[in-house]
Amino acid sequence: MSSCRKMLVAKGLSKTFLQGRGAVHAVSGVDMEIAGGERVCIHGPSGAGKSTFLDMLGALSKPSSGTVVFKGKELYGMSDRARSIVRNKNFGFVFQFYHLLPELDVVENVMLPGLISGRGRTRDVRARARDLIERVGMGHRLKHRPSRLSGGESQRVAIARALINSPDMLFCDEPTGNLDSAMSEAIYSLLLDISREKNMSVLVVSHRETTPGFFHAGYAMKDGILSEKES
Questions:
Q1: What is the pTM of this model?
Q2: What is the pLDDT confidence band of residue 96, given thresholds at 50, 70 and 90?
Q3: Any idea what the CATH number is for the domain that residue 197 is in?
Q4: Is residue 10 part of a domain?
């Protein structure tokens, strides 16, 4: 485990959804700490609460109870605008279904979060995007639209997009769920290299096992309850 100070700390995190006349407890009183540069994985079946938990940690969904502290500041004690700034500036997200905009080419898709953040001139954001696209092995696809990319290529572009603002933390929700085993291993190898290079924390939630040696800490989640397991 990384010796760096704790970057993200969750305490008593819970999420309850109303369903008909009853309630579904998707996440129940979960605690977690993630250090700078630490790579953490949560495994569990579909419906275990993994994605809901990730969304709360990543400032995408307000918890029913509990706190999330990032770099000493409580995320859900902030205004919506302040929380959005943290999410865009400090967090990167990689999802199973890529969410690339079909009307934009590869470079434009990767540039988008950088343009939204307002960090630098358009030409500087474009140069940074092109560098990242080369870094993930997609330099030959710069002007291609998502419809012309394979699943593995789309995920590499999504990773480049998630890195455009040099995030402190990368949140990955089933990042290889649509890929075969060889491509899955390549994606995790890429994430490992970038995490080490940038001292970037990574949280992956997945229903299947991942490449051995990638993670510092592993957890299992079932019925909204988290338990630590050997990495």
A1: 0.91
A2: confident
A3: 3.40.50.300
A4: no
